[in-house]
Amino acid sequence: MSADQEDMGHFDTNGELVGISLLRPARTGNAFEETLASLLHAIRLGVFPPGSRLPSERDLAERLGVSRSTLRDALSALQESGHLVIRRGRYGGAVVTGNPPKAASEQPTSNAELLDAVRFRSVVEPGAAELTARADLSARERQSLQTAHEKLLQAGADEYRLLDSRFHLIIAELSGSPSLAAAVAESRAQTNKLLERIPFLPANLNHSNEQHRVILAAILGGDAARAKAAMAEHLAGTEALLRGFLQ
């Protein structure tokens, strides 16, 4: 087998890539999260076994339908989480570690638990964003939302998830429906328990901040449809990460 073939990943006895079809183009605006989840899935299924090199950046980016920059962010995140080692030089590349880490929780996440959390959230939070965008917000209410967003942008890793929850909860509180706000609070509690089991990824933080900006602009601009769609896309990114790390 040539060095070029080895760079392409794991081959079977016929020289064909095993399971490479698992790496499919990102389907939503969450390119980083979907790329990360796809690579994690392939690693966990043994498509890329311990010690093997992933395909070249060019081939991976083409297969996943993402930019080289997005792919590098995902590879860097997987290196930070302990799943890959990035080696430089002519014979370098992204190498799967011999003993990839498991989720932080001692108890595995069941499909039912994860599905319940993401389905519940996918219903209540986009609805809350839509209602808040339709609401006649006072100057004080608008400022409270902007302040929460500004604090989130300045947050460090140790406080980001807490302030992230606060931003989402304020959106729900401003919807005008106490029942919906309570449902969003319950949803966030479920989601945060799952998020605590996966690594904190700076690249995901940057993407989330940009999505928060879009959500905020849609709400303050009174664009209910955009607010609902932007929130749904934001939640889809989190779902992709959770599925990638926990399933």
TrEMBL record:
It comes from the Bacteria. It comes from Arthrobacter russicus. The keyword Transcription regulation applies. InterPro entries: GntR_C (IPR011711), TF_FadR/GntR_C (IPR008920), Tscrpt_reg_HTH_GntR (IPR000524), WH-like_DNA-bd_sf (IPR036388), WH_DNA-bd_sf (IPR036390). Pfam families: FCD, GntR. Residues 29-99 form the HTH gntR-type domain. Keywords: DNA-binding, Transcription, Transcription regulation. This is DNA-binding FadR family transcriptional regulator. One of its GO terms (molecular function) is DNA binding.
